[in-house]
Specification:
The protein is an alpha+beta fold. About 35% of the residues lie in helices and about 25% in strands.
Length: about 150
């Protein structure tokens, strides 16, 4: 029997995959558990519509990420940090600090989208990578200066 998976199922596949299983397995386990539905004409139409809507949503999100990326390429962030002897930084500049600097500029970005290999612990100029979307990554300039 052909079925459409409604949930990820380790031995069969992921959501919206069309798979063929034995009739009894589908009727007695997968369909009653809500893991799958029978792949008839109406279910295939619904699947096609869901894929079309998801593609539209992904394109819209990508376009908005590209607009934000254009805005961010012109942005220069300045982090004022406290320093000690020989200009050694107390603490470090983390992704949370960068997210707060962006928020002050009116740009709201989740700190998990900021890709720092390690916290910044020295004065200077840096390039910070932001992953705004799966397909859109932008580099932002960060100047770390002492107070």
């Amino acid at each position: 029997m052909k079925i459409i998976l409604q949930k990820d199922f380790a031995s069969l596949g992921t959501v919206e995959d069309i798979v063929i299983v034995k009739d009894g397995y589908a009727r007695n386990y997968l369909i009653p558990q809500g893991i799958a539905v029978k792949a008839d004409k109406s279910a295939l139409k619904v699947l096609a519509e869901n894929k079309r809507v998801a593609e539209f949503r992904r394109n819209r999100e990508r376009r908005s990420a590209e607009k934000l990326a254009e805005q961010l390429t012109q942005t220069i962030l300045i982090a004022k940090v406290q320093t000690g002897e020989e200009d050694r930084v107390f603490g470090s500049v983390t992704s949370q600090d960068i997210a707060e600097l962006l928020k002050k500029k009116g740009i709201e970005i989740d700190r998990r989208k900021i890709e720092l290999e390690e916290p910044i612990k020295a004065l200077g100029k840096y390039r910070i990578s932001l992953r705004l979307h799966q397909e859109v990554t932008v580099s932002v300039r960060l100047n770390v200066e002492k107070k």
